[in-house]
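JOB MANIFEST
job_type = single_chain_structure
chain_count = 1
residues = 235
[input]
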Amino acid sequence: MGIFTRLFKVGQAEAHAIVDKFEDPIKITEQGIRDLKSDLQNAMNGLAEVKGVSIRLGKEADDAKRQANEYERKAVLLLQRFQEGQLDQAQADRLATEALNQKELAAQRAARLSQDTEQQQRMASQLQDKVQQLKSAISTYENELVTLRARAKTAESTKKINQHLAQVDSSSTIAMLERMKRKVEEDEALAQAYGEVGQVDTSVDAEINKALAGASISKTQDQLQAMKARLGITA
């Protein structure tokens, strides 16, 4: 493979990647349906025109057949007039011959018009099949578009969620949670320590007060005994 061929394929692949990136499947499908509807409208217009031509040719063929029959009838009448003596033989033969010639021309025209009519009818039948195919395709794609919109919406929501989750640094989140856990544990330990310190302070104060209270009672007892001695109370 030549260098230019490889470069072309690389450029082509990049171009396709860019197109795929910017293509919106919903918009592309909607545009495709609009194109199909435009084709359907053109096909229906063509079908109407072909049917119109077929109807006109059919009427012209019928008229030509009637003309052929009419010329044949006139030829017979001319010969009958000769038999009845109303026309001489030469005149009757000449006019009857002309009538038969016109009959032949009308018959040929009728045959040609009948063939053209059949051809137009075949074309109309083909166009009718095309119209039905387009109608069926449009109905199918319109139904699929409803599902496609729902799928695209779900896919977009899922993609956003996954992108958000992909951007979250799980290790940093875990580290943060561990720090918060240690912080709570430290606060709990500190609270317990403060509580124990408070209990120590309270215990010391109680001992001091108890010692002081005992000394006060002992001093009072001494004073009571001295007073009893001065009064001569021995009990």
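[summary]
The mean pLDDT is 80.
Residues 89-167 form the longest helix (79 residues).
exit_status = 0
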